[in-house]
Each structure stands twice: as structure tokens, then as C-alpha cells.
């Protein structure tokens, strides 16, 4: 039994990535829930990373297509004394860069609020993933390049990101809390 527990601990240590963690918000009842989050490489998330986001969708929303999702995003950066919410001006720069790269599908409305127009259509053919479990691959390079361009070396370090989205038919689409270490220089 001790050998089995030791083996489990070793495997958990090898396969767990402390630089990337994700979970559903506490008390969330979103249509889409986060099941897994992985990086294609070890170490900090960087431009070479391809994130695998595994989600489970509880219901088929295709009959409501097309619809929009309003998402609130809060980004906190770790500084000497803990996590601090990034300034509004910085969030506005990041939002403008995301809109430039992913518009017209994603629009930045200001104050950490985004409007997504059928955001999963290009990936799965519908506004939200189909009912069941699905893994979406997300190259981090465009985001890393944008962060480096917008905030430079301040984009490096530990971050907590909270993302909650609601559909235009008044349902919680998703709510995720992420913690990640970013290195835009690598």
C-alpha cells in the first residue's frame, strides 16, 4: 500500500503543473464547466505554449444560436505583498489588443467587460460547445505577443484571472478562476 501511495504521489508531482491551474468559480452553475487545463510544455506559460482546455457542457444550446455572451474579466498580478488587481488603463490596453486580434467575434466594452458573439462557432460550429466533453486547443502565442507589446516585462509573473460569462438569454454560460505564471520573454 505504501508503494502505491508513493507512486501516486510521484505521478501527481510529475504531471501537476504548478504554473497553470484552473477551476470553476465556487457556487457556479454555468452551462460549461472546466474539467481540465494543461499546457503543452513544462514551466511558465509562454508563446510556445498550447493550452488544452477540457470543458463539459451540460445542455445543448444550439437552438438559441446565434447568441452573445457578456464576460467580466478580472486580472490580478502578484506583487511583493500579494495579488493586486491591474489598473483599469492596463486592462483597457489588453482589451483593445484582444479586440484587435479576435474582433469582430470579441468586442471590449471597457471596465474588464467583453462581448462575445457566438465565441465557439469557429471551434465547434455553435456558440457554446456541444453537450458533453470537449477539449479545445488554444495557442498562447498571439496573447503572449500582445501582452509583451502592450505591457512589456510587466506581463511576466504570477496572475490570477477570473472570467465569468452570461448569455443574452440570462443564463450563466461559465465561470472560471485561473492561476498562471506567464513568461512573455521565452
Architecture overview:
The chain has 186 residues and is an alpha+beta fold. The chain has a single domain (27-182), classed as Ganglioside M2 Activator Protein, Chain: A (Distorted Sandwich), CATH 2.70.220. It is globular and about 45 Å long. The protein has helices spanning 2-15, 88-102, 121-124, 141-151; strands at residues 20-24, 32-39, 50-57, 68-79, 82-85, 106-110, 113-117, 132-139, 157-167, 172-182. The longest helix has 15 residues, at 88-102. It is built from four helices and ten strands; from the N terminus they run αβββββαββαβαββ. Residues 1-15 have low confidence and may be disordered. The strands form two sheets. Strands 1, 4, 5, 6, 7, 9 and 10 form a seven-stranded antiparallel beta sheet that branches.
Give a concise summary.
With 186 residues, the protein is of the alpha+beta class.
Amino acid at each position: 500500500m505504501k508503494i502505491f501511495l508513493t507512486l501516486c504521489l510521484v505521478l501527481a508531482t510529475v504531471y501537476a503543473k504548478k504554473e497553470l491551474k484552473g477551476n470553476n468559480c465556487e457556487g457556479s452553475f454555468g452551462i460549461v464547466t472546466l474539467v481540465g487545463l494543461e499546457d503543452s510544455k513544462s514551466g511558465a506559460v509562454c508563446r510556445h505554449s498550447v493550452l488544452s482546455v477540457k470543458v463539459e457542457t451540460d445542455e445543448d444550446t444550439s437552438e438559441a444560436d446565434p447568441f452573445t455572451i457578456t464576460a467580466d474579466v478580472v486580472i490580478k498580478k502578484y506583487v511583493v505583498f500579494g495579488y493586486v488587481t491591474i489598473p483599469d488603463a492596463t486592462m483597457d490596453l489588453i482589451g483593445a489588443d484582444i479586440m484587435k486580434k479576435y474582433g469582430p467575434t470579441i468586442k471590449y466594452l471597457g471596465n474588464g467587460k467583453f462581448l462575445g458573439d457566438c465565441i465557439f462557432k469557429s471551434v465547434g460550429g455553435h456558440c457554446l460547445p456541444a453537450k458533453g466533453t470537449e477539449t479545445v486547443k488554444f495557442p498562447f502565442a498571439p496573447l503572449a505577443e500582445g501582452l509583451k507589446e502592450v505591457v512589456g516585462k510587466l506581463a511576466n509573473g504570477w496572475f490570477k484571472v477570473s472570467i465569468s460569462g452570461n448569455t443574452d438569454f440570462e443564463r450563466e454560460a461559465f465561470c472560471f478562476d485561473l492561476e498562471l505564471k506567464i513568461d512573455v520573454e521565452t
